[in-house]
TrEMBL record:
<dbReference type="GO" id="GO:0102130">
    <property type="term" value="F:malonyl-CoA methyltransferase activity"/>
</dbReference>
<dbReference type="InterPro" id="IPR029063">
    <property type="entry name" value="SAM-dependent_MTases_sf"/>
</dbReference>
<dbReference type="GO" id="GO:0032259">
    <property type="term" value="P:methylation"/>
</dbReference>
<protein>
    <submittedName>
        <fullName>Putative biotin synthesis protein</fullName>
        <ecNumber>2.1.1.197</ecNumber>
    </submittedName>
</protein>
<keyword id="KW-0489">Methyltransferase</keyword>
<dbReference type="InterPro" id="IPR050602">
    <property type="entry name" value="Malonyl-ACP_OMT"/>
</dbReference>
<keyword id="KW-0808">Transferase</keyword>
Amino acid sequence: MKFQSAKRYDEFAYAQKIVADELLKMVVKSRSEFAQIYEIGAGSGVLTRRVISSLKYDELVLNDIYKSDFMASFQTQIGDILTLNLPQKLDLIISSSVFQWIENLDKLRDKLYLSLNNDGILAFSMFCDGTLQELSSFTKQSLKYKNNSEIKEKFAVKFEILGVKNEEIIAKFSSLKELLNHLKQTGVNNLNGNFKLTKENFKLLEAHFDGNFALTYKYINLICKKR
């Protein structure tokens, strides 16, 4: 993750914006008024802006591992979500395009469960197995993406599933340079190792795409209610 260096995230986060839009639509269908909302991984505010415009609430707290300029005017809790002491009796915990970075989803699920009010809502989107497959098929490296069924089953252990959506987004680019810049600006490179993009690798990667410069984002949106 290199989100601190992704200064133009909002401009290039095509898939992340679509995913956040879809997540908020699903939340509103379930419930639109909350007392306390806690957002995990607020960053530059892609999801936060949609929360503000779509939901009614009394208090909003933003979390991330570092404090972005956008977050400066909000109540925040900075740090790793797995180690922080979270507020209690929350009505909505929401997150978009973040949970794929968290390996221990069981620990996260249990922690969020304890922080919610009875009948509180957990709403999140995360990228799944098959995301950026065009890149990982060349580098042979990837994040350890989970599949949709595995994610749903994990959260169904403690939550009632109110809504689920599995979709994919295909982002297309005019050149390999444009594609790589998109990855750079969104802080995501799908690599879990020491792959270096040399001049030779660039030419090989360009040939690998064979003129079809596209990236697939597969995601799940899940709306859950505390049992």
